[in-house]
Structure formats: structure tokens, C-alpha cells
Amino acid sequence: MKDSAFKPVQSPFRVAFDGSFKRSQTSTEPPRNAPDKSACKAQLAQRVKQLDALQRMLYAHDHHAVLLVFQAMDAAGKDSTIRAVLSGVDPAGCQVYSFKSPSAEDLEHDFLWRTARCLPEKGRIGVFNRSYYEEVLITRVHPELLKSQRIPSLPKNLDRLWEQRYRAIREHEQHLAASGMVILKFWLNVSKKEQRKRFLARLEEPEKNWKFNAGDVGERLHWKSYMQAYEDALNATSRPWAPWYAIPADSKSYMRLCVAEIVVKTLKNLNLRYPKLDRGQLTRLGEMRKFLQRS
After folding, report:
1. Is the dihedral of CA 227, 230, 233, 234 positive or negative?
2. Which residue in 12, 60, 80, 126 is deepest, having the highest Cβ count within 10 Å?
């Protein structure tokens, strides 16, 4: 069975592979011609149905695994987007991992270890809610976190460390892609103004109080540093085998639709199909049919 190579789909939100991405030139809001909220929801429902069918075929085809990586500032909508886009997929064909602060066990290993052990097998869709990219994002903004990692040859110039990690990530993702992993990475690009609005909603709506974390608010003081860290990370690691998509996140309905469309188009481009049985297998099925009809 001849298999199709992964080709990143065209999208106005795909981060260029040449390092020319500029955060200041991207919008956090939908374009003017974007569908309204109700239209986005209707189209998302269609994409969810398509994704369910494609995942079943992905499993039967058994040549690829799919890894969806989500990174964003707090309150950008990672959890709700993952839930909305994958709501119709067979739970047996999907796995979601959320990576928070490294555990003591994680810190005994290299920074890629804890995510590598959670990669999806062929036929399944894996989701990383945050990922190894935290080690070139939050750790870059808060380099004091490096102390707990006990790196024996930590360079005095930390720019060298980030470049080493970018290279390790590129090579890691290229290795996975060569083995049949389809990697799609989504940066949910929310504005500082919209984040503030969503934080206030968590305070004012009782059913959202549990989401509020004072530490998340404190991170707003480092907004510019985070934006620079994201810009550098996306430029260094958006490649044809593992593209980044900077999705406008101020409208959750539009953001979810964009993510779903990219995933669906990518799976369609893989030319997935159900396996065809050879003549001997078909003959055997015929024999089993006759046996069952007689018994």
C-alpha cells in the first residue's frame, strides 16, 4: 500500500518556515470576512463529523499518528478548543495530556522525556495541552526555573541554551515525522485586552471562579517577554514537517473553527483509506459467510 507524505496545508495563519514571522504583524481578531458566531458553530459541527470519520480511517490505515500541540497564554482557550474540536472523536482513538510544572521524576530526565513517553501510537490522535515548548517559553521568561533542572554545563549566555533547545526540538520533531507522525502546532494568539476580559469573567461568574489563578494574573507583567519568546520559538521551529499556526484567539468560535479546518484538511491530504483484502483473504471471508449461514 503506497502511503502519502505529509504536506502542511495552506493557511493565512501558518507560520513561515524562513524565520520571518512577526508577532506584531499578526492579528488576534478574526478577519473582516470571517463567519459570524452562529455560522462558525454550524461549520464546526460539520468539521467535527468529518474528523470522526477521518480518525476511524486513520486507525484502519495504520500508517500515521497525529500529534496536536497547543500553546498559548492563560485564558486563550486551549481547553475549550480541544474539547470542541475533538468532541465527536471516538475516545478510544484520541488521547489528551496536559503538562504543567515538571515533577521530581521529570526533572531527573532531559526536557523532552516527559512528553516523549506520551506520544500517540499509529492510528490515534494525541493532544498536548502545553508541551516541551514550555522549556523555551516560561523557562525563558523565568530562567530561575533552570536551577531545579541541574544542568551540568549551563552556559552563562542563556541564548546559547535556547538555541540548543530549538535545535533539539527541530530534530526531535523531524525524527517523529520521518516515522509517520503528523505534527500540527497551534499557538492560540489572544490579546492582552481579551485575556483581561476573560480573567474578570472568572472572578465575576461563580461557575468560573474555580478557573481563577492569581499566578496567571501576575504573568501579565511579563507579557512582552512572553510575546518575544513565542515569536522566537515559532520562527526557530516552524518547519514543513511540523508547522506552527498562529490562530487569532479573541473570538473562541472562530478560533475553534480554524483549528478544526486545519486538522481536517491535513488528514484529507494524507489520502487515508481502508485496507483492501487480497484474493485469498476475500475467499476466506466467503467461506466464513457460508459457515455462519449454515450454523
Report:
1. negative
2. 126
- As to burial, measured by CB atoms within 10 angstroms (0-12 exposed, 13-18 middle, 19+ buried), residue 26 is middle
Ramachandran class of 180: left when φ > 0, alpha when ψ lies in -120 to 50, beta otherwise: left
Residue type (1 letter), 57:
M
Number of residues in the chain: 295
Q: Give first-to-last CA distance, the chain, whole Å.
A: 36
For 112-159, write each residue's pLDDT tens digit.
999 999 999 999 999 999 999 999 999 999 999 999 999 998 999 999
Distances (CA, A) of 271 to 2, 64, 90, 141, 180: 10, 11, 20, 41, 14
Q: Taking the C-alpha atoms of 87, 40, 246 and 59 in order, what is their torsion angle to the nearest 10 degrees?
A: 30
What integer pLDDT is reported at residue 9 of this predicted model?
A: 93
DSSP state of 71: E
pLDDT score for 5: 66
Structure confidence at residue 2 (pLDDT): 43
Judge residue 30's burial from the number of C-beta atoms within 10 Å of its C-beta, 0-12 exposed, 13-18 middle, 19 or more buried. Answer: buried
- DSSP assignment of 14-53, as one string? BPPTTS---GGGS-SS--TT---HHHHHHHHHHHHHHHHH
User: What is the C-alpha separation between 10 and 13, in angstroms, rounded?
Assistant: 9
Instruction: Give the pLDDT of residue 217.
Output: 85
DSSP assignment of 98-166 equals: E--SPPTTGGGS-TTHHHHTTPPPTT-EEEEES-GGGGGTHHHH-GGGGGGG--TT--SSHHHHHHHHH
Residue 23 to residue 27: CA distance in whole angstroms? 8
Q: How far is CA 185 from CA 68, 121, 148, in A?
A: 6, 18, 27
Mean pLDDT of 266-279: 91
In this structure, are residues 85 and 117 in contact, taking their beta carbons and an 8 Å threshold?
A: no
pTM of the entire structure? 0.93
Percentage with pLDDT > 90 across the chain: 86
